[in-house]
Design goal:
Two copies of one chain form a homodimer.
Chain A: E1 4-7, E2 11-17, E3 20-27, H1 29-37, E4 43-49, H2 55-62, E5 67-73, E6 79-84, E7 93-98, E8 118-121, H3 126-135, E9 141-144, H4 148-153, H5 155-162, E10 167-171, H6 172-179, H7 184-191, E11 198-202, E12 208-212, E13 215-219, H8 233-248, H9 254-271, H10 285-299
Parallel strand pairs in A: 1-4, 1-8, 2-6, 4-5, 8-9, 9-10, 10-11
Antiparallel strand pairs in A: 2-3, 6-7, 11-12, 12-13
Helix pairs in contact in A: 1-8, 6-7, 8-9, 9-10
């Protein structure tokens, strides 16, 4: 087991889905990632919160033995995102974004975080992602997420970042935008030429497609009959992915990375079953193992 | 090996995709299905063609030992569909539909077709699908496809039809329309209560999801780097599915039906690599076996 460092957003989200609404509920990539990864390893989280941040929300991480020393508390409000999902649960429509304290976020790692071996750079400005990597001494595995906004506005920073990371974990729209082609099969193959050893494309309810070392690895999502809110599923996936690998703490092996994708899927399948981190924070290891067994049944086939 | 009966459309399609255009190219569900299934078993095809139908297009089926005695040739033009795909290759936009001779199609089975054990009712008016079933003596496995037009206009005929069939093979949009819910996981489970022993949902580039006997079976599509035209992929899938099962010619076993879904995927992956039936008509059995081995590598994982 080796500790995982995550840098990302901490947010309050207001979300409407066909099944209901959550108002100012806990969100942000760093929260989803941490809670997911904490089932496997110890997590260190770096982010920024406002003076409105509830101690009970901090406790949600601390109850999972997640180190929150890297959370900067500054005057002002916590980042707030408002979005809705209409029929298509695969695509969020942004209604409002208030960056608040996130606007001037400059990630500074506490001294004791700098020896982190597993590093996940959730979706923030690629310049800041570079700055985080500059502070880590000798990471063993670095993963990165991004979004279309940075692909459009900071492509050079992003491209130089991709030369420093092992795994790119992004969704289908981001794959298409980055590789500038509609065919995601061709695109993720192309993106491995840009630096990362593996590209993991998250496909929402359809699962994932990975390309690494000349091979595709593709599997579906766990079938969830009661999807309530897909927000955070991608970051939860990344948490399961990093959690699995950091728990192993062994050298890169493609078979392990494949298994990490499956754990990403499993963890994400819990998150979508409720609003905010409500389902995720209740999951325990026996539930993960039970779902893993069910998942293997769903994809089991003769050769 | 047992013979397969298919009833469906025979068409000339004019199709534009981001990669090019095909003008009045051979299409129609019965053609895609037959060519696909003919790699496994003998196929008997029922449909209607106009007096413009090219003998060379008839020869495409006959070269594969497909019996075309059930094709009615009547005065007038063959059914013509014009459509385009924009960036999203998963969804066709219809530009023009000329039913022509298809408008008054009344499927009549030649006497020697009536003992067919495997029957696929491709997407036509559910009243006509009923009429076909009435003519078959004792089918072993009946499958049916439909479309939103019939779901909206002839739901009662469709519902009574579903009580007479073993397998419903439809796409995601049709699943949602039929079950009247957005969550396809819940929807295909619900649809098995309407009659069919198995519901197979085709998900285009994402593969398929099946529900049968209280179990989900889900796998991705074979990753195609050069998708040219997805038209006919669903009917090609059905051809591989029925082809596999009719070649086995054994009693219903869920494990066989799962394997049939994989063969559906494999066959569909050829169709999308060129316009019309161009790629499909060139496929031979060694190519299917080669792709099957590659597909198993793509989905292979530790337990």
């Amino acid at each position: 087991m080796s500790e995982i460092l995550v840098v990302g957003s901490i947010a309050y989200d207001t979300i409407t889905t066909p099944t209901g609404k959550a108002d100012h509920a806990l969100g942000g990539s760093a929260n989803y990632f941490s809670l997911s990864a904490s089932l496997y390893s110890r997590v260190r989280v770096v982010g920024v919160i406002g003076d409105d941040y509830a101690p009970s929300d901090l406790a949600k991480l601390e109850n999972r033995d997640i180190c929150t020393k890297g959370l900067q508390k500054v005057p002002g409000s916590t980042f707030h995102w408002e979005g809705k999902y209409e029929k298509d649960m695969n695509e969020a429509i942004t209604l409002d974004t208030q960056l608040n304290v996130f606007e001037n976020f400059n990630p500074e790692l506490p001294e004791e975080y700098k020896d982190s071996k597993y590093v996940f750079l959730a979706n923030i400005d690629p310049e800041l992602q570079h700055r985080v990597l500059d502070q880590v001494q000798s990471p063993k595995l670095v993963g990165v997420d991004t979004m279309n906004f940075w692909i459009d506005s900071k492509i050079d920073d992003l491209k130089s970042l991709l030369k420093r990371v092992d795994v790119l974990l992004i969704n289908e729209g981001e794959v298409r935008a980055l590789a500038n082609t509609w065919n995601t099969v061709a695109a993720i193959k192309e993106l491995t030429n840009w630096g990362p050893r593996a590209v993991v494309m998250k496909r929402g309810e359809y699962g994932f497609m990975m390309y690494s070392e000349g091979q595709y690895f593709i599997l579906p999502a766990y079938p969830v009959e009661n999807v309530i809110d897909p927000t955070g599923a991608g970051d939860t996936f990344a948490g399961g992915f990093f959690g699995y690998l950091s728990k192993l703490n062994s050298d890169w092996k493609l078979e392990d990375v494949k298994q990490a994708c499956i754990h990403g899927c499993l963890m994400a399948s819990f998150t979508v079953q409720d609003f905010s981190v409500n389902a995720l924070e209740k999951v325990d290891w026996p539930q993960v193992e039970k779902r893993q067994a069910l998942y293997h049944k769903v994809i089991a086939h003769r050769d």
